[in-house]
Specification:
This protein is of the alpha+beta class and 287 residues long. Helix content is 35%, strand content 19%. Strands 1, 6, 7, 10, 11, 12 and 13 form a seven-stranded antiparallel beta sheet that branches. It has a two-stranded parallel ribbon with strand order 2-5. A two-stranded antiparallel ribbon has the order 3-4. It holds the Pfam family Peptidase_C39_2. It comes from Virgibacillus byunsanensis.
Amino acid sequence: MLIILFFLSCIVAIYFTVMLEKAPKKWIKNSFALYGIVFAITAVSLGAIYINEHKVTLMAFAEEFVDTNSIGGKQASPTRPMTSEFSIIGSVQLDAPLIKQMPELPRGCEVTSLAMLLNYNDIEVDKMELAKKVSRDPTPYQVSKEGVQFGNPHKGFVGDMYDFKNPGLGVYHGPIAELAKQYVDESHVHDLTGKGFSEVFNQLAHNRPVWVIINTSYNRLPESKFTTWQTPDGPQKVTMKEHSVLITGYDNEYIYFNDPLNKNTQAPIEEFEAAWVQMGKQAITIY
């Protein structure tokens, strides 16, 4: 309705501006000028209200492209603005349960964060059950003249989740979304991967925590922290600082989250988004 009133106000303001030149008498000109100003101000006010009420949606258009160096991402615009450059209206703080991955699951951040998301949605399941059920890529760790050969986290959990003494990494959004569908009707599991960070804000604004892949520094990593190993599905760019958290809120400065390592509870929006983009814009929620 706001957008309709906005366009009507614009049309009326233009009408009176045009008719101003054709008015036969001075008092009519003055009246038309006044009406034109009033409707122009009305149009500006309605436009401002509409933008504020749809801030999160409008931000999505600014995030059409993915960062060039993101894992599994598309070609990006090097000048893509970050979400923090936009005004964020209000704040959100969701009361999701905090579950710690340690000591049982040293590499179990992804399933632990999923347990938090499921528990928030009144689904009683613990991290250990999810750890057993998540898909795995059984490809063994090997080092050859071609480099490291290991599994594909897009296919299933790679390596040992339970012991740092053995090689391992983690798992990405695909297998986690499929695991969630074992507990929730698949129509309620929404894989947001590849969408703009504003979609994360949108879900939070609707009281939906968001599972994401990030890194342990909550900021963009230098290329030196990444390596490429060979998998049965082709080369895979990875970082051993890969991590997963459940985002639970935001304000105009920070993203708030439940970290299964219990390291931190917040990070500056721009830094967190940069890390999330670099890790392939992976996100899942339930509703």
